[in-house]
Amino acid sequence: MSGSSAERAAAAERVLLVVGGTEEVAAVAGWAAKRAARHPMAVTLVGMPDGGRTDGAERASDLLHQQMPSIPVAVRLPHGPVRAALTTAAADQDLVVLGASRTVPLTRVLPSLLAIRLAESLRRPVVLVPRSAGDDDGPVLVGVAGDGSDDDALRFAGAEAVAAARPLRLVHVGRRAVPPRGALARTGDEEDAPSDPARSLDAAAGAIRRSRPALGVSTALLRGEPGAAVVRAGADASLVVVGSRRSSVEDRVPVRSVGRALVEHPPCPIAVVPPARRA
């Protein structure tokens, strides 16, 4: 391998694509091909059984080669329980991508929060790609909890927005009505929310603008049930990014409801980003 080829291989993002049914193969392969057009990528495909068919990975590989012939693709066959097989396959990957069609056995077998659990246990982002992949021209939307758990999600969302040449939208959801900005600090928001969500949003947006001055960044304060509010907000997005942390899946109802709502009713591709491993 030449020096330049070795450098490209070393710089390539390692992506695990998990596919099952016919509906999701095209969506996942198409999403990966668009991503590969933006930067070098090496793909590992895992095909989950679908009604007796086990050729999902091979079909996805054929589609990828048709759209992006230069993508290196390896195919693995899963062994054992679904979650254990995916954990093993994802051990050396940078990003995990799951098909999110609800009409095939893959997502009937996987719990609706598997993406969050995988992201947290693997400490790497997991993306769910629905059959209808959303508006490619829409913004990247990222949820801001304001409690420090979403710092890595914000960095991931900013990088994705820049790579895709899309604006970035930061949103915070509160269950209570959103009062005027000057009154936010005095409203006694719910226990897990920041005391001043507007200030938290402004601080997060300001940090991104300083690090990525060419990126268009906007913010929005929403109200209502968190899961439904984020699904509605993501209707015109090209990607929705949410953060997670180990304790959140088991004991934080807002995070659990957002994760389930997004997985069961994905308005577009959903990225679940856990806190990164620290040296």
Topology:
Elements (H helix, E strand, L loop, with lengths): L2 H9 L1 E7 L2 H15 L4 E7 L8 H12 L5 E4 L5 H8 L5 E5 L5 H5 L4 H9 L3 E4 L10 E4 L7 H14 L3 E7 L22 H15 L5 E7 L2 H8 L5 E5 L4 H4 L1 H12 L5 E4 L6
Parallel strand pairs: 1-2, 1-4, 2-3, 4-5, 6-7, 6-9, 7-8, 9-10
Antiparallel strand pairs: 5-10
How would you characterize this protein structure?
Helices cover 40% and strands 19% of the residues. With 279 residues, it is of the alpha/beta class. It has two domains: 3-110, 3-Layer(aba) Sandwich (Rossmann fold), CATH 3.40.50; 140-273, HUPs (Rossmann fold, 3-Layer(aba) Sandwich). A ten-stranded mixed beta sheet has the order 3-2-1-4-5-10-9-6-7-8, sandwiched between helices. The relative contact order is 0.14.
Q: What CATH architecture of the largest domain would you give?
A: 3-Layer(aba) Sandwich
How many helix segments?
11
- So, the CATH homologous superfamily of the largest domain? HUPs
The shape, in one word, is globular
pLDDT averaged over residues? 76
Query: Percent of residues in helical segments?
Result: 25-40%
Please indicate the percent range of residues in DSSP E strands (runs of 2 or more).
15-25%
- The helix/strand class is alpha/beta
Strand line-up in the sheet with most strands: 3-2-1-4-5-10-9-6-7-8
* H/E series: HEHEHEHEHHEEHEHEHEHHE
Question: How many domains comprise the coordinates?
Answer: 2
> Which consecutive residue ranges, at least 5 long each, have pLDDT under 50?
1-9, 102-111, 181-191, 247-255
**Major sheet attributes:** 10 strands, mixed
CATH class of the largest domain: Alpha Beta
CATH topology of the largest domain: Rossmann fold
C-alpha-based Rg, rounded: 19 Å
Please report the distance between the alpha carbons of the first and last residues.
31 Å
SS elements, strand count = 10
